[in-house]
Write a structure and sequence with these properties.
The chain has 439 residues and is an alpha/beta fold. It folds into two domains: 43-369, no CATH class; 380-439, no CATH class. It has helices at residues 2-17, 52-55, 74-85, 100-109, 125-129, 144-159, 180-186, 200-208, 225-233, 248-263, 278-282, 284-289, 304-313, 329-336, 350-376, 386-402, 405-413, 427-434, and strands at residues 43-45, 64-69, 89-93, 113-117, 136-139, 164-169, 190-193, 213-217, 239-243, 268-273, 294-297, 317-321, 341-345. The strands form three sheets. It has a five-stranded mixed β-sheet, with helices on both faces. Strand 2, helix 3 and strand 3 (89-93) form a beta-alpha-beta unit. The relative contact order is 0.13. Mean pLDDT is 80; it is low at 1-41, 47-60, 404-408 and 410-428.
């Protein structure tokens, strides 16, 4: 009991000293990620580096970059879940050329593999030829619908979640662009459909994959009632859910609520402009690391649906994606009044913003790696030793400074909420479980 009281005191002191809570403890996001995947229906170029299937490397050892067209949303949207499964960043390129900022970021990462999303009409062979120093894998089909299916096959093979998908309209981005955080949390593919009827490649995927749950993003103006009817009647899908609001802003808010139901995180959120798609798609990696949804706003006025969610959740930190031309200083000031601290990640354009997000992503992953290395090196064999107390105090301090408050609060209150019986965990056991420390 004395140890528990000492640790609790250390935690409380650390909480008082720690005014800024930054990156989260992201065990759950990547717990089952990896670098595997089939190569069916995939075009390979420039086999200059090791193959993850041949070498057996995974996760952080095998570095991947996903490259998508910054002028169309569908391929990058479908690829956002794959990026999370492969623990990697999404960068953007123009169809016919890749800029120096993006090339320099690729050189910085020095990936073992670059996954190009879409066919040559999305990312041209000229761009692929610029990547000749790297192994390039293209995931592309005849059109956006087949490309989403091919990407979805890769997601399913890595995640193992093979009975559910998300369905969004493939011809207009507003309702579709904020589904990624929910799909990432559920580790489920994103498929596309026209508004009024199911498309052939999508129908084939739903049949071949034997899907029994579909989550539709958007109201009937985005994905019609006829599509929902066909899912139930002709494909025999037993569970069809729809998340939609009166416009893109309310749809984003409703999806964000669903993410919160899964993650229980209300302290952090991501806000991007709602009248264009690139920032919303490339920032999904940070939303995933922060266990948050993505909310939308007008450039010069904080949208009411977004404002209400931030107030309801008492959000303490907001990440703004994009520069001042995307989300104005006026909106930033409105958020600060709530009050919320703000981190803005943005560049001069969508391509540089994607690079800035990529760099921030790497920074957070380094912090997580450092945290997990520290926890792995702890010796907790003697619950009553002063060394154990000091080690746990240091670990808690590190976690408090780098994680969501909810994680720390969970550790602090778990035992108090347990009954005094033989099933009650010792505090040491709980810490081992919380920080994934081998017993």
């Amino acid at each position: 009991m004395k140890l528990r009281k000492n640790i609790r005191m250390l935690v409380m002191i650390s909480l008082i000293l720690s005014n800024v809570i930054s990156s989260p403890f992201a065990n759950k996001i990547y717990a089952n990620g990896g670098a595997g995947g089939s190569k069916a229906s995939i075009e390979f170029k420039n086999d200059a580096k090791k193959d993850p299937d041949e070498e057996g490397v995974s996760g952080g050892e095998f570095k991947t970059v996903i490259l998508g067209c910054g002028e169309r949303y569908t391929d990058v949207l479908a690829g956002s879940v794959l990026a999370n499964e492969r623990q990697c960043q999404i960068l953007l390129t123009k169809t016919e050329s890749i800029d120096n900022v993006t090339m320099n970021e690729i050189k910085r990462i020095d990936p073992d593999e670059i996954i190009v999303l879409g066919g040559p009409e999305a990312v041209s062979r000229n761009v692929v030829n610029k990547l000749k120093a790297y192994k390039v894998t293209r995931l592309g089909g005849e059109d956006r619908y087949e490309t989403a299916k091919i990407i979805g096959e890769q997601v399913r093979k890595i995640s193992g979640n093979k009975k559910a998908v998300n369905l969004v309209v493939g011809t207009n981005f507003p309702d579709a662009m904020t589904i990624s955080p929910l799909a990432i949390q559920n580790r489920t593919p994103i498929l596309l459909t026209p508004t009024d009827d199911l498309e052939g490649y999508t129908t084939k995927a739903l049949k071949d994959w034997d899907i029994n749950k579909v989550t539709i993003a958007g109201r009937y103006e985005a994905v019609s009632q006829n599509v929902e009817h066909n899912l139930r009647k002709y494909l025999g899908i037993s569970k069809v859910d729809r998340i939609g609001g009166e416009d893109r802003y309310e749809t984003a808010a409703e999806i964000s609520k669903k993410v919160t139901e899964i993650t229980r995180n209300t302290s952090k959120s991501v806000v991007v402009r709602g009248d264009d798609f690139p920032d919303a798609l490339t920032i999904t990696s940070l939303a995933a690391l922060n266990n948050s949804g993505i909310l939308l706003t007008q450039t010069d006025n904080l949208n009411d649906f977004t404002k209400n969610i931030l107030r309801l959740n008492k959000t303490s930190k907001v990440i703004i994606g994009g520069g001042l031309s995307a989300v104005s200083k006026q909106v930033e000031n409105e958020i600060r009044k709530m009050p919320s601290s703000i981190e803005r990640i943005g560049g001069e354009d969508r391509y540089e913003t994607a690079v800035k997000i990529s760099q921030r992503f790497d920074n957070i992953i380094e912090q997580i790696t450092s945290s997990k290395t520290a926890s792995a090196n702890l010796d907790l064999s003697d619950e009553n030793s002063p060394e154990t107390s000091v080690s746990l105090g240091k670990l808690f301090r590190h976690e408090i400074e780098n994680n969501d408050k909810a994680t720390t609060n969970k550790a602090m209150t778990s035992n108090e909420n347990s009954s005094n019986n033989e099933n009650k965990k010792s505090f040491i056991d709980y810490i081992k479980e919380l920080f994934n420390i081998n017993k």
